[in-house]
Each structure stands twice: as C-alpha cells, then as structure tokens.
Amino acid sequence: MAEKFTFPNAGIHIVSHKVGEADYFLTKLNETHSWEPEYNYLFSAFVSALRSITFTLQFVMKKYPGFEPWYTSRQEKLRKSELAKSFVEFRNHAQKTGLIPIMKERSFFEGVFYESDQFYVPTNSEIKKVPSGHVIELSKQCLTEVLSVVGECYRDFDVYIDPRVLFTERGITALNWTVEDIEEMVGFPRGYTDIPYDYESTGLSKDETRLNSLRRYGGDETLQFYLDKYLAQ
After folding, report:
1. What's the pLDDT at 172?
2. CA–CA separation, 201 vs 20, rounded Å?
3. 180/119 same-domain check
4. pTM of the model
C-alpha cells in the first residue's frame, strides 16, 4: 500500500509573499519620479525581493518529489537570460557598493544624454554591460521571466501546492489521502462531513461533495493573482 504523503513545514504561501513584495516595490517604483530619493530605495528593495523569489521557491519545493531535476533546467534557462543576469548584477552591486546604476531622465553621464531612466555601466565595477530600455519596463520584464518559472512550478506540482487542486479527488488520490485527512488538516474531526445526504442530487461523487464543503477552509489562494497580473498579458 502506498504511503500517505507528508507535507514539509514550508508552504507555497512563502513564495507568494515574496512575489507580493516584489510586486509592491515595483508598483511603488512606477509611481515615484526618478529624481526623488525614494526611487533608489525602492529599486534596491525590488531587486532584492526579485532575487529572493527563486531562493524561496527552492526552499519551499526542495522536499517535493521530482522538484530538483525539474528545477535544474529552469534554473539554467534563467542563467542564460541576459536580462535576469543583469538584475542579479544590479542587486549584487547595490549590496556591495550601495550604488544604484541608474541614470535619471534628462541627465548627462560621460557625454551621453539620457532622455529616460536607464541603466548605465558603472566605472570600475563588475558590471560590463546593461540592458537598453526604460528601467520600469525592464524591471517588469525581468519579474515576468522569473514568474514564468513559478507559474510552471505551480502547474506541474499543483497537487502539492495549489489548494484548488488539493481539495479534489485527483488531489487526494495523488497524495494517497482521504477526505478524513483533509478534514483533520483544516481542523475538523475525522468524519465531520460524512453525513446522511442525497449526494446524487449534486451530480458529484460523495467524496467530491464533501471536499467542496471543505474547500472554503483551505486558505486564500494568492499566487494565482500575481501570475495572472504578469503572465496573462
């Protein structure tokens, strides 16, 4: 008989919080003029949160079966991305030097006039090239690249991390769980929903009907909100 799956202590909500953090700082950055001192504060916070998304994803998912070989190919994809690589360098440069390599709109640097907020190559730094384009748009593109990996993970490992799938017959079958296990997980006594009822009238199986009644106690699903915001455009 297959063994029941035991969830690790770290949940996908940790990743959701970090994605929400990056989204928050990017939103604030977009609302702030680059000549205001808060602009640099916000960009520094954004790249730090952005970098942490994949760290937290690995931390949360490392104990789930099949994740490590799955993530290896996605990690390689991000490493090959010039944009993602640049943002890692921006984060490292900001942490090591305290400097943000952004030229503000309508400014001069080494004989170059910048009409809009753009990245530049700092003198005597490890940064050798930067992506061209507006800071906000490039930041959004990079967050989208990272979230594409998170979205794939959310889809491919849905029975473990998507509460909408966990509260289904497919979900509990994959985990070798029962409806009673779900009841216990959300804080009810085992057998709490096993009551006399005309289950055929629902058009669903008895287990599916019981799971539907428990789904509201499974917690809010927040990650999908950010995936829709950045990937469904």
Report:
1. 94
2. 41
3. no
4. 0.88
